[in-house]
Write a structure and sequence with these properties.
Order of helices and strands: EEEHEEEEEEEE
Structural class: mainly beta
Number of strands: 11
Helix content: under 10%
Distance between the termini: 40 Å
Number of helices: 1
Strand content: over 45%
Largest sheet: 7 strands, mixed
């Protein structure tokens, strides 16, 4: 059974940075051959894509975060990261990690406020 455990959320001032982590508690081989991603859901809004990374390391970003966010993965640690810089109040949301097409983490809250 695959389980995703996210961490790294919190309260940060506008312009600040956070790094989210998502550990995949599953077989290492499975993680290495599977795409990963981060989505977010703000209160009252639909869940939206933030970034994805393929098994080969190819990345894709939402236009709203391009240039401010970097997704990366460490296959040796079964972990995917989301480095977020120059954070804005509109980045406030619950951030979810996804493995493949339909395995979700529990979410971690990011709040950007002064």
């Amino acid at each position: 059974q695959v389980q995703l455990v996210e961490s790294g959320g919190g309260l940060v001032q506008p312009g600040g940075s956070l790094r989210l982590s998502c550990v995949c508690v599953a077989s290492g081989m499975f993680f290495r051959i599977t795409s990963m991603g981060w989505y977010r859901q703000a209160r009252g809004k639909q869940r939206e894509l933030v970034a994805t990374i393929s098994s080969s390391g190819s990345t894709n970003y939402a236009d709203s975060v391009k240039g401010r966010v970097t997704i990366s993965r460490d296959n040796a640690k079964n972990t995917v990261y989301l480095q977020m810089n120059s954070l804005k109040p509109e980045d406030t949301a619950v951030y979810y990690c996804i493995l493949g097409a339909n395995t979700w983490g529990q979410g971690t809250q990011v709040t950007v406020s002064s």
